[in-house]
Amino acid sequence: MKFFKYLFITIIFWGISSECLAQVEKDSLRILFVGNSYTFVSNMPHLVSLISDSTKVKLVTSKSTAGGASLSDHWNGEKGLKTKEAISNGKYDIVVLQGHSMETIEEKEEFLSYSKKLSDLVKASGAKPYLYVTWARQKVPQYQETITEIYKQASEQNDCGLIMVGEAWKLARTLRPDIQLFMLDGSHQSDLGAFLTACVFVGDFSGEVPVNLPTNYSITDMNGEQVVLFWEDALDIIFCRKVASEFINSTD
Fold first, then answer.
1. What would the pLDDT profile of 125-151 be if each residue is shown by its tens digit?
2. Is 204 helix (H, G, I), strand (E, B) or coil?
3. What does the DSSP assignment read for 152-163?
4. Is residue 251 part of a domain?
């Protein structure tokens, strides 16, 4: 009798453990960000992962980036990039593709061609490709319509998801023209711009933007020292959260 009782308890325990493990696996996504400084400035992928700690889905992020990189640079291994190898060998759930900020304006056909090559590679690896719709530079807001349209075209051609970051920035700047999303160069994201961008990604990938977000985020480096990645005003955090919430599942 003791043997059967032990066997029964073991089976129940294993069933619960297996269910728990399946839940952990189900509730996490491995994401590779492919892009340039519009991805890596202000530690945006790190922020995505840290913000996701407050959601039901943990987003585990990595990146393959280089300053000024276009999609063709990623495909051809320029600038020291090994993006194709990372996609093929990384066992990611999602790969986010981000072109050069002016690529859709100045090199439309090249952008469409390499977004297809990379999207096909992502699918072959078993991951889902997403396109990161970037923002227009501060002095040329009229470019946003073209940027968004070309990304939409690439999405339709390649059956990719779309993360509408540029449109979120447009809404934020319409509601609050004074908001400081740009660095002084009028091109790259400030810390607050990176935070809004990260919130859009978290909202789309997890299905929610957490209500009570902290005003600061930090990580611990290899020496055990705390490194602050982000610290902003609480009202700006609330504002960015509300804007990002408008774009949850916007491509479904």
1. 999 999 999 999 999 999 999 999 999
2. helix
3. HHHHHHHT-EEE
4. no
Q: Is 4 domain-assigned?
A: no
* 2 within some domain: no
> Could you tell me the pLDDT band of residue 20, with boundaries at 50, 70 and 90?
very low
- Percent helix, strand, coil in the chain, to 5, is 55, 15, 30
| AA letter at 247 | F
Query: What's the pTM value of the predicted model, to 2 decimals?
Result: 0.87
Half-sphere exposure in the Cβ direction for 120 (13 Å, CA): 8
Strand 216-220 and strand 226-231: the pairing is antiparallel
By C-alpha distance, which of 199, 123, 113 is closest to 161? 123
Phi-psi map region of 206: left, alpha, beta (phi>0 left; psi -120 to 50 alpha)? alpha
| DSSP code at position 60 | E
pLDDT tens digit sequence for 29-56: 999 999 999 999 999 999 999 999 999 9
Tokens of 29: 């996504």
Tens digits of per-residue pLDDT, 66-125? 999 999 999 999 999 999 999 999 999 999 999 999 999 999 999 999 999 999 999 999
Q: How many separate domains does the chain show? A: 1
Distance (Å, whole) CA 113 – CA 183: 31
Domain extent, residue 102, equals 28-245
H-helix or E-strand spanning residue 220: strand 216-220
